[in-house]
Every structure is written in structure tokens, then in C-alpha cells.
Amino acid sequence: MLQPGEQITNHLPAEAVLTAKHVSKTVAGPGGELTILDRVDLEISAGEVVAITGPSGSGKSTLLGILAGLDLPSEGTVQLLGHALVGSDEDERAAIRAGNVGFVFQSFQLLPSFTALENVMLPMELAGLPNTRQQAQDILQRIGLMDRAAHYPTQLSGGEQQRVALARAFAVKPKVLFADEPTGNLDSATGERVVQQMFDLRDDLGTTLILVTHDVQLASRCDKHYEMISGRLTAA
Amino acid sequence: MRVLRFVWRAVQRDWKSGELGVLALALVVAVASVTSVGFFTDRVNKAMQLQASTLLAADLLVSSSEPIPSEIVQKADELGLLTAETREFPSVIVKDEETQLVGVKAVSEYYPLRGQLSLTDQPFGDERPADKVPEPGTIWIDPRLVSLLDLTVGDTLQLGQREFTVSALLAFEPDRGGNMFSFAPRVMFHLSDLESTGLVTFASRVAYHFLLAGNAPQLEAFSRWLEARKGALNVSLNDVSNARPEMRVALERSQSFLGLAALVAVILSGAAVAVSAQGFSAKQATAAAVMRSFGASRRFVLITVCLRLLVIAMLASLVGSGIGFLVQQVLADMMSNLFVMSIPPPSLAPLLAGLLTGFITLVGFALPPVVRVRQVPVMRVLRDDLGLTPPSAWIVTLAGLAAIGILMVWQANSFVLAALVITGSVGALVALGITGFVLMLLLKRFPGSSLTGWRFGLTSLVRRSQGSTLQMAAFGLGLMALLLLSIVRVDVLNAWQQELPDDAPNVFIVNIKPEDAKHVKAYLAGLDIATAELYPMIRGRLVAINDQPVVGEDYSSDPETERLVSREFNLSYAEKTREDNPVIEGEWWHGDDRMQSLFSVEKDIAERLGVGLGDRLTFRVAGEEVSAVISNIREVQWDSFRVNFFVVGTPAAMEAYPATVITSFYLDKARQSELAALIKTFPGITVIDVDALIQRVKGMMDRAASSVEYVFLFTLVAGIVVLLAAVQASRGERVKEAALLRALGAGRYKILQSLVAEFALLGFIAGLLGATAAGGIGWLLSDQVFHLKYDFNPSLWVVGVSAGVIGIGIAGVMATRSVLAVSPLQSLKK
Q1: Domain region containing A180
Q2: Cα-flanking dihedrals φ and ψ of residue B688, to 5°?
Q3: How many domains is chain A partitioned into structurally?
Q4: Is A199 on the interface with B (CB under 8 A)?
Q5: Helix or strand (DSSP H, E) at B732
Q6: Mean pLDDT by 10 residues, chain B (830 residues)
Q7: What is the pTM of this model?
Q8: Do A111 and B290 touch (CB under 8 A)?
Q9: CATH code, domain with A163
Q10: Which of A212, A174, A165, A234 is closest to A51 using CA atoms?
Q11: A95 reaches B (C-beta below 8 A)
Q12: Most B CBs within 10 Å: which of A114, A155, A175, as the mutation test of the B interface?
């Protein structure tokens, strides 16, 4: 089993970072079984920036969760960084993510009792990396938030919170970054700044970006653009 | 290592952010209350043991009918114990050719080792403490001798071959225990004068006493050493626990009361920690999900959260123990003037108890909700609505009960007391749960529910039914504890103190000849003294049980029983039962039964002798054997100071044997000189004034009651803190909800109304149930543990409901009022 923090080397042909085959997700609803994802197929190569757009409730976030191993599909298979997620238990999937996968959430999900700096340090600490404080300070410096390092999330503006979340996501130099509506709670200027930083970090680190967004303009800047409608994924 | 580093950083963060502040505070309060009660109880118990030691005039007393073997004295010296000696025997003093039977007591230097002698210059005059024993050549005499022999201070009297000068009247002698009915007036002089009286010869009936005092390890070492040899050395060993029964009862009861105080603190601790832990685990849900999304395993999440709690618990326990120590110091200072001697320092045991209490309370109450964080759906990072499922009610209840059970049995050292309080608490919780459920059903049908105002407050209870039930349980439990402390405690303490009313008999008259009985009664009536009944008294030694011969040594494992069997019993006979001697097994004799030979036996002595209904006891009375079957078992209140007997027979069984008559009555101290005339009229009688003893027992009861009140006062404060913690726990949710309502346009007044309605209703139900539970537990405790009569106090419900409505209403609104002052945006942003 992969240990947390273990860096994944080339298990796959260079490009294939993430592969989803016939992924479906159904849940029991009040009126019977409800299909949220319907036989989704997807392949994402290393360094690609992929956008998934679609109306609310179309299943975008559910797909993102399944691709990241936060949840399991009812049917189908998912390979992340050469590891089959289906068939792995929760802790095994967590070990695959540790040090290799970053997240940016629409609601930021910064831990309220952690300062900005500590929030950035968290994934590094979890991955058991050394010099976490120094590295976290470097990242905050780079995104221009060093003066906010000692602030708690409630003391930061929405844009600042999302940039700290972004710094946290890139702290472990992840191979894959999952972003769920990263600009959804931000005004357009702030959103643009966050997006630009995301792309800059991709350029620096070669990280694969998988974005779920409503923002068509953002989607158009991505290497690939998929659209999700009623649980089905199609190339836009 | 990684885990420990992470935990250490997390604890530092918790410290800075106050994340675990409420839980830590709850633990601090819990541990502080348990340790302060523990430290203080420890010290008060020690002080009361010391106080009780005054009844022996020592911590340990070695007695023998022969001179105390020198090896015993050597052993005591070896162990560094303080020692003194006394010798007692009956003799006669002569003054101007008049003689009087007296109880002689020759005492060595340092007597008494515990307690103090009191002297006076005239009967019933002002008393002063004696700082040493009588000077050689002088004698201290019983004030009764003043009227009997017309003696006064400065006179001389003859005792054996010696003349002594009366230098003082002996008003109080701490160890004047034993069989008070065989008392002759006391005379006391220095042991060094004994030989010159020529009274102690080979044939004399002298009781030799060797008194010891010291610290607990010394005394224990001595007891252990002597227990193994006392048979061979022909001595008996007494300690405080087998001192006078009324004192033993007082000590045991006060210990039970103090134990109860500790128990209540334990329950409060649990409630506080459980409530805080719920809030903590809810807050940890998002953090756990985020950590797992970044690759942390469930084990890592669980271990780190548990270790964080453990570190916090240890720190809180240390702080709590420190506070507990300081608080008990203050309490001890407040109490010190109530005890004759200074209160001894506490042992370190309560400190360990505090730390362990913190740990057990945390595991029992905080663990079930907290371990759930490992199960938080990691998808929560994408969907806020995926929450933490609360732990199974069974697991929470069982874990909490297990923790309470362990702590209670340990703290109260009484399984019965612990079981009763647990039963009461569980009963209260079940009642609260059921009532909460029924209330929710009723409220759901409440007409015209509204989204604002007081109706909103009521319906929000329903919407949060699980949380509301939990809060109701916490509030109910807290109020139950407060009511137990404030009202039930007073009732139970009063019931106890009333057992020894101000007009408890303080004078006993014994050795009344049967033919004089009527005249004595008439004489006393003439003095306007209402006497109790006159009881025949026959002295007899137990010689057989079920026709099998018994001797004292058969009961060597139980010194008190051994002593009782070795001595003569005071027996009596009666036709009718007494109200204050309820028959608890079998039936009192009536009709033809009275013609048979039957015995009624006191409960404790029956247990000690291992006899019951149908067993045959045989006593030797005046050289003849009296045998009868036990037909009933009675309960006797030994601390009532009324005339009581271990064994009472039917007239048919006992009437034929020589008896004297005994009676008792209350006589105001100012009038006690009138008794001198009674003694002149009926020279054969013996008047025993037990006023001093009663005053000391009463004093001890009062001190015990005061100490219990102080201890309860502290627990009361802990209870209030728990109530505040319960309000605090739901504060966040309420503040947010109220902010939303304000944002949606609800006025401050409407929100205030809804908050008041919600908390007041919560308080009403909690008060009602808390009062009922407190009444039930109070009754159970009185009836089953303290064996006192308990009357339900209607004010319990009035106070309970009022305190619930007003207290919880105000506390709840105070805790959430910030939403009315802060802008909704700020509240929502938090």
C-alpha cells in the first residue's frame, strides 16, 4: 500500500494521470433510485487543465468527489495516478491522495482555528514533509499573502481565503489539483486573480488541474472542456 | 513521531484558538470540584476522626484487667507513639465519717491524649479546660459529690490510706464512655499517688488502660502488631470505630453526606463534559473531512483528536487539582474554628483522584461523540450538508453510566449509595427523554406555528428535537443536582439533627428499687419534670445461642461483639412495643404470646451475633439461666439518647428476676442542682448527667452538618457552571439562526421573544423533572441510606420550576444575546 506522502513515480504511460471508465452513481431517493452519474468516461493526461461545466445539480461535484477518491461510484472504475480507486478502502484512497492531490473548494474549507500559515502547513504536515513552516511561508510570499500569515480565516476576505486555500492546495506540489467552483464565491476581479495564480502554479509545477465551474470563460481557457448534463459527460 | 508533533502543534493551536476551551473549562470545574471535595473531605474526615478520638481520650486504647504487659509499652515507645496510662476501679471515699461509693481513676502525665478535661469550682459553674493532670496529693471530684458528701474545693477526703485535697470539680471527662449506667461519681488523681492509697492489691478489680496517639502509619503498625498478640497478652484493643454507638452513627452518617457531595460533583462533571464534547466533535467534523481529503487516514484523524483531548484533559486536570487544593484550603480555614483542634493536612490521594477523575470522565463522556469524527463522510468537503451522525444513544448512555459507576463506587465507597444515585440519574434521564418526546409530539400539533416570536421559540424546540432532548437532560440533571443540594440536603440534615432534639433526655436515673419506682416518678412529677417511661433493667451475661455455649472469644474477629458477649447485657422486659423501637422482622408479642418466654432483639446485635427469628438465647441472670426464643427484631436509634436495650423479653420470661428500674428525662441545666434533693430522698439511686456527652455529640453533628453544607456549596457552584456550559454549547447554532432571522427582517423584539420562550420552556420542563427526580432521590437516600424519615417538600417543585424558567431563561438569553447587539452580517460571517 502507498504510504502517505510517498511520491508517485511513473506507473503509467507519461500522460494518463486519471482514467474513469463507465462511472455511474445512483442513490436511493424518495421516489425510487436516482441516477446522478450515468456511465461517465474520462481520461486526463499529466499537466492538462480540464474544465467540467454544467447546470446546478447535474452531478459535477459528485463526479469530482469520485475522481478524487472522496466517494466511490456505484459502477465503473477510476484510476488515479496509477492506482485503482474502486476496490481500495477509504484509508488506502487517502494514502494515494496524501502528498499527490490538492483541493480547492467553493466554500474554501479553511480550518477556522488554524491561521492562514497553519492552514497552508496542514497538508505538508499530513504528508510528513520537513520544514513545513518555511515552505508555507514561501508559498504565502509568492501569492502575496505573507502579511496575512498570522490571520485566522474569519479575519480574511473571501478572495484572500480562496488564495490561502489555493496555497494550501499547492503546498505539497500535487500532481493533480481538484477545484470545485474555485471562483464561485468571488467577484470577477478576485476570481480572475485566483485563476491566474492557479495557472501560474500549474506552469511552475506541471500540476494537472481538474476544475468544476460555472464560469464558461474560465472553461474556455482550459485545455479540455467537458459539459455535464443530467449525469452524462460530453465534450463541450 | 509525526503524530505526536502534529498533536503538539494542534494542542498549541487549540490553546490559542480556544477551540477546546469549553471542554477544558468543564474538566477544570469537574476536577476542581472533585478534588476540593476530596481534599476537604479527607481533611474533615481526619478532623472528625480526631474529634471522635476524644471519646477514647486517645486514638487507640488497650485495656486489660491485669497490668498492661511491658512489651506493649515497649512496642508503643519503639513506634514513637504518645502514651498515657489510667487505672480505674470502684472504691469508697470518706468525709467526716460519711462514705460514698466512687469510680476511682488514677491518671498518668499527658492524659488525655485526645480531647480535654474540663474543671469547675462549683457544680454547674463556669468550666475551664484543664491543662494538666491533678498534682500529686490533690484530687478532682465529680460535682455530684458536692451535694452527696457536702464537699467543696479545698476540703480533704480520705481514699484508702491517703488523704487528698480537693483542688477542682471535674466537669467533663472525654472518655467517660463505656457503660454509663454503672457510673459511680468520679474521683481522679495522679497515678503516682495510687500506690500510697494501698487500694490496689492482688484481689482488686482494676481496669488497666493504656492510651496511644500518633499518626496513621504508626497506629496501623501498632494495631497490626497487637491484633496478632492480644489474645495471648489478654488485652483488648479499641479504636474510634468501636467507640460509643451514637458517635459511630454520627461519623458514618456525616461520611455518607460528604460522599454524596462528591457523587453529585461527579455527575455534574459528566454532564458538563458530555455537553462540551458534543459541541467539540461537531466542530471537528469539517476539520476531519478536510484532513482526510488531503490524505490523512481515519486512524490518524482519530488518534490525533483523542490525543489532543488527552493532553487537554491532563492539563485541565492539573489546573483543576490545583484550584481544588486552593479552594479546600480556603474551606478548611473557614472550618477550622469549628473543630477543637486544627484540621490535619490533606493526603495526596485526592490529587491522584482528581487526575483519574479527569481521565475517566473524559473517556466515559467525551469519547463516544468524539470517536465519531473518524466516520465523518469525506465528501463533506464538497457538500456541507453531509454531517456527523450522532453516536448511538446506547453507547453514549452505557459509556456515561460506566464512567459514573466507576467514579461513584470509588468516590462514595458505597455501592448502595452509588447504585441509588445512578438509578436516580438514569431514571431522571429516561423520564426526561420520554417527556421530551411527548412534548415534541404535542408541540408539533401546536396551532398557528409561526416563524418568529414566542411560537417560533416553541417550535424551534421541536425542530431541534435531538439537541433539545439532550439539553433538557443536561439542564434537568443540573437542576436535580442543585435541588438535591439546596433543598433535599437541608431536609435530610434537619431530619438527622432532629433525631437529637434540644430536649433529648440528658439525665438518667438508674438503680431505682422497683418498690421506689412509683415514688420516684411522683417526686419528679412534683418537681414538674415529665419523665419518660420507667423501664425494668436486669443484668445478664449471654451464655448460649441455640443451647450451644458461647464466650467472648468466639467473636474475636469482631472486637465490639467480643466485648459485648464478654460483658453483662442490660436486659429488660415489656408488654407493649415502643413507637421509637419499630419491629422490622417478626411480630411484637400480644395475647397469649405474652405468657411465653420470648425475646425481642435489636437489629445490629442480632446481626453481630448472627441470630434471627426462632433462635434461642440463654442469659445467666443472678446465677440462673434464662432462656427464650427470638420472636422479633427491633430497630433502635442509638443516637436518640433514650433508654434502650439490646434485648427485651416478655414479662413471663424475665419478671421473676431481680431488676432495678431506669428512667430518663430532660432537665434544664440551670435546674440540675434540684437533683441533689432527689438523691437525698432516695439514697440508693444513681443520677447520671449525660448533658456534657449530649452537647458533644450535638456539637459534632452540627460541625458535620456545617462541613457538609460548605462542601455542598462548592458543588452548587459547579452545578451552575454546568448549566452555563449547556447553554454555551448550543450558543453558536442559536446565534446563527437568530442572525439569519434578523437578516430576513425579524425584529429584535421578536427574536428576544423566541429565545425567551425556548429557554423558558426548556427550563420549565427541566425544572419539573429535576424536582421530581431530586425528590425521589432524596427519599431514596433518606430511607435507604441514612435511615431517616423524609417528608416530600412541595417547595421542591416550586423552586425547581421557578429556577428552571428564570435561571435557564436568563442564562440562555444572556448567552445568546450578542446576536441582538452584533450586526447579522458579523454573526453570519462567523
Answers
A1: 16-235
A2: -120, 120
A3: 1
A4: no
A5: helix B731-743
A6: 77 71 75 76 69 74 87 92 90 82 90 87 81 93 82 89 92 65 76 89 78 86 86 77 54 62 68 75 82 86 87 87 81 59 70 82 82 81 70 72 76 69 70 70 61 65 67 72 69 64 76 84 81 80 90 73 76 85 88 84 88 91 88 81 85 85 82 72 72 65 63 61 65 71 72 82 84 80 69 83 85 73 59
A7: 0.61
A8: yes
A9: 3.40.50.300
A10: A212
A11: yes
A12: A114
